[in-house]
């Protein structure tokens, strides 16, 4: 990584239990948390925002949320984000094809109309060579409520923040999935239990 880790006892007391829970759950502390933890107030803010966006009562389905986070991570070349979010997607979707096809989703047949539209919007928001058009927004409103669109836009924007932070600081994958390339997602999956994937990871 381009910024060094500190030893755990150098972080504020209110952050350390977060790291201990990660170690019990994953067998290791997740690298992004160690970096965000250098600025404790940013750490707390990012963790709270992620928890709100990925809450159980979100109007967006868990599978849709994971599709969006993986696709943003692929576009932004975030090896860590693709790794851990692909693991979560596989568990939520229980469908290997949705994981494997995501880097070329437009040609794939395994996604629903809602998922395809959300992925098209994800591309338009994330990529610098395209823009969100009125026509695309009209099609979104045919499928999603305006409240849903705000949630979706917030999730895409957050994942751009997270993945660009991790990519800029060269945060590596930590072995949740076997990835041939950070832009492509997993081929073989050795996934961990992510029933509580509310950690600062994505």
Automatic annotation (TrEMBL):
InterPro entries: AhpD-like, CMD-like. It comes from the Bacteria. Residues 44-123 form the Carboxymuconolactone decarboxylase-like domain. GO terms for molecular function: peroxiredoxin activity. Pfam families: CMD. Gene3D superfamilies: AhpD-like. This is Carboxymuconolactone decarboxylase-like domain-containing protein. It comes from Reinekea blandensis MED297.
């Amino acid at each position: 990584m381009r910024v060094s880790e500190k030893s755990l006892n150098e972080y504020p007391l209110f952050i350390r239990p977060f790291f201990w829970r990660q170690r019990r759950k994953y067998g290791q502390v997740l690298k992004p948390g160690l970096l965000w933890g250098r600025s404790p107030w940013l750490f707390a803010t990012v963790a709270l925002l992620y928890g709100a966006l990925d809450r159980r009562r979100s109007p967006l389905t868990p599978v849709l949320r994971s599709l969006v986070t993986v696709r943003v991570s692929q576009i932004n070349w975030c090896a860590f984000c693709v790794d851990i979010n692909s693991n979560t997607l596989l568990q939520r979707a229980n469908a290997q094809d949705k994981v494997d096809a995501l880097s070329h989703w437009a040609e794939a047949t395994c996604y629903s109309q809602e998922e395809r539209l959300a992925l098209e919007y994800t591309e338009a928001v994330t990529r610098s060579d395209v823009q969100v058009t009125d026509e695309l927004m009209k099609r979104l409103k045919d499928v999603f409520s305006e409240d849903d669109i705000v949630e979706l836009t917030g999730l895409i924007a957050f994942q751009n923040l997270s993945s660009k932070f991790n990519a800029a600081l060269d945060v590596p994958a930590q072995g949740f999935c076997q990835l041939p390339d950070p832009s492509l997602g997993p081929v073989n999956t050795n996934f961990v239990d992510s029933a509580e994937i509310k950690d600062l990871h994505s």
